Amino acid sequence: METKKDKLDFAKERAYEYLKRPDNYIAAWSSFCSDLLNADLKDDTGIMAALEIGTSMLVSGAIKSNEEMRRFIDGFN
């Protein structure tokens, strides 16, 4: 059975693949969110709150580069 850590690691690795391409932080975030929402982590209020914060930061311009997105995604555990 996959653990929460396994699911997070999978989502992170897929997002990092997007971050290898220039200015692809929005696609990386979309991939990360999609993977976590499809990984049956919807009941994890910490994950859901962090996804909402990340989306707000992205929309507001607080995250505006691949490096900033990588640091934000690295903070998930």
Low-pLDDT runs of 5+ residues are: none
End-to-end span in angstroms?
Answer: 18 Å
Rg over C-alpha atoms, rounded to the nearest angstrom: 12 Å
Helix count, per DSSP? 4
- Beta-strand content: under 5%
Report on the biggest sheet. Answer: none
H and E string:
HHHH
Measured as a percent range, the helix fraction is over 70%
Structural class: mainly alpha
Q: What's the domain count?
A: 1
The number of E-state strands comes to 0
The global form is globular
Q: Averaging pLDDT over every residue, what do you get?
A: 93
Tell me what you see in this structure:
The chain has 77 residues and is mainly alpha-helical. The protein has one domain (4-74). Helices cover 70% and strands 0% of the residues. The chain contains four helices and no strands. α1 (4-19) runs antiparallel to α2 (25-37). The radius of gyration is 12 Å and the shape is globular. 21% of the residues are buried. The mean pLDDT is 93.
Could you name the key traits of this structure?
4 helices, mainly alpha, 77 residues, globular
